[in-house]
Amino acid sequence: MTSPLLSGIKSHFEEVRDPRQYGKIDHPLLNIIFITICGVLCGADDWVAIAAFAQAQQTWLAKYLDLENGIPSHDTLGRTFAMINGQEFQQGFLNWMSSVSQLIEGVVAVDGKQLRRSHDKGIGKEAIHMVSAWGVANGLVLGQRKVDEKSNEITAIPQLLKALDLKGCIVTIDAMGCQTEIAQQIVDQEGDYVLSLKGNQGQLHEDVVEMFDYFEEIAFQDIDHDYHKTVNKGHGRLEIRECWVFEPAAWSDYFRTLDKWAGLHSVAMIRTQRQEDEKVTTETRYFITSLAPQAEKILFAARNHWAIENGLHWVLDIAFNEDQSRVRQGYAAENLAVIRHLVLNLLSQEKSLKVGKKNKRLRCAWDVDYREKVLSGFAALC
Q1: What are the pLDDT digits (tens) for 97-148?
Q2: Residue 226: beta bridge partners?
Q3: Cβ(143)–Cβ(92) under 8 Å?
Q4: How far is CA 95 from the centre of its chain?
Q5: Whole-number Å distance between alpha carbons of 367 and 298
């Protein structure tokens, strides 16, 4: 009988076609996917290490898999993942996460990350770039899309958002994603947006900066606006964040492109001052948002956008050694990135062990009971 764990993996990745030649398949695709998930969970970061893990844990793996033909070699693992269609494999992950869409709430941070060593100069292949959606409240990767070569995040973000249930969520994106079409899509999907505004939206950026410059000159006297301030101290550092927000519709004569932005209700200016020892730095950023002009809420959303850097990108580099991965053949790099996201979600859902992700991976390698407890999260989430 197939275990609930394997049934869950099979059901969500069932649309992933086996790319290998019929009649020459020694190891079922399900075996290869499960072995790779378990290997990465237990600290293996490349095909050689994953195959070595499987050889060492063959007796344990036999509890779940038919290993009549033994353990696939590292070459078999690498070749198979290089051939598996990347979009199909990413859709398998999205199928899994959509089954728990009720977990998506609050801020959804969208940002991109380059897998630095996934390039291959010999064949002119550039390093791949993955755009991910991070559920801040739950600490989960909600989905990801690879940016097509010769393209940029603007094309990948709409594909990623389309796969998510954004109703009631606040989507935060940096300046690259500050596009009228993306704002319209988020509103159409019943979400709200907080988009960083920079020079790529020339006229709107200029108008917003000029308005805030004028308001500051008169100290916001008689200007209908909202304001919020936070002060944080710790580790010898002081951070002061201030947010001013107003409704641009009341000043429509001074804006040239307001009618192009779906649901735009507020524009905001956030100023951050950081003091560490004797060094003081100040940064001013501007945002457009579909939220009502509530400075505290907008400041919270903008600040939480950077959770994707600490909760996802930093963890992938430190705990999963992603930036050092030289996996690059075919679709292998993006498929292995999806596996890392899947494993990260499993580790995030396991709350009993109060250590970082790297040490949780080590514990999975050392402790079979803990490994199975973490893996049970997949069946539970399913």
Answers
A1: 776 555 567 899 999 988 876 666 665 566 788 899 999 988 899 999 888 7
A2: 245
A3: no
A4: 16
A5: 44
Report yes or no: 272 and 240 within 8 Å, Cβ to Cβ: yes
Cβ neighbours around 69 below 10 Å, total: 11
The answer to whether the CB of 321 falls within 8 A of the CB of 337 is: no
Q: The domain 97-312 is classified under which CATH number: 3.30.360.10, 3.40.50.1780, 3.90.350.10, 1.10.8.60?
A: 3.90.350.10
The β-bridge relationship of strands 279-289 and 237-246 is unpaired
d(CA 213, CA 286): 12
Token pair, residue 151, equals: 């393209």
Tell me the HSE value of 250 on the side-chain side, using a 13 A CA sphere. 11
Q: Domain map of the chain by residue range?
A: 4-84+350-381, 97-312
Nearest to 78 by CA among 136, 23, 128, 20: 20
Tokens of 65: 């898999």
Give 361-374 pLDDT, tens digit per residue: 999 999 999 999 99
8-28 in b/e burial notation, b at 16+ Cβ within 10 A?
bbbebbeebeebbeeeeeebb
For the whole model, what pTM was predicted? 0.90
CA angle 188, 192, 198 (to 5 degrees): 105
For residues 378 and 95, give the distance between their C-alpha atoms in angstroms, rounded to a whole number: 12
HSE (side-chain half, CA atoms, 13 Å) at 318: 12
Q: Is 283 exposed, middle or buried (0-12, 13-18, 19+ CB in 10 A)?
A: exposed
Strands of the sheet with 192-197, listed across from one edge: 140-146, 129-135, 107-114, 170-173, 192-197, 279-289, 266-276, 237-246, 226-234
